[in-house]
Amino acid sequence: MLALMRKAGLRAIYLHVTSLGSVGLCIGLWIRAKTVDQDERGNAERRAIFVGLWAPTLWLIGDSLDSAESEGKLTSLRSRFR
After folding, report:
1. For range 2-26, the mean pLDDT
2. Quick one: what percent of the chain has pLDDT higher than 70?
3. What CA–CA distance (Å, rounded) separates 11 from 52?
4. Are 66 and 10 in contact (CB under 8 A)?
5. Which residues make Cβ contacts (< 8 Å) with residue 5, sequence separation at least 6?
6. Less CB within 10 Å around the terminal CB: N or C of the chain?
7. What is the DSSP string of 21-48?
């Protein structure tokens, strides 16, 4: 799977930046949730929490990709699929 992500052009830094962006988006959605009326506030807060859960997932996938790049596992995986 990591080899496919690398082949698609995905780098660890892209996932780390996207993870930090999802934290910012979560904060923005949380602030926006405070401005909507009471009937819609629960849904808006759940949306902010859902987006906030993306951050650790994306960060850990980026770490896995980074460690695979540094250990040279991706080159050995590529040779298997040729």
Report:
1. 89
2. 88
3. 21
4. no
5. 61, 65
6. C
7. HHHHHHHHHHHHHTTS-HHHHHHHHHHH
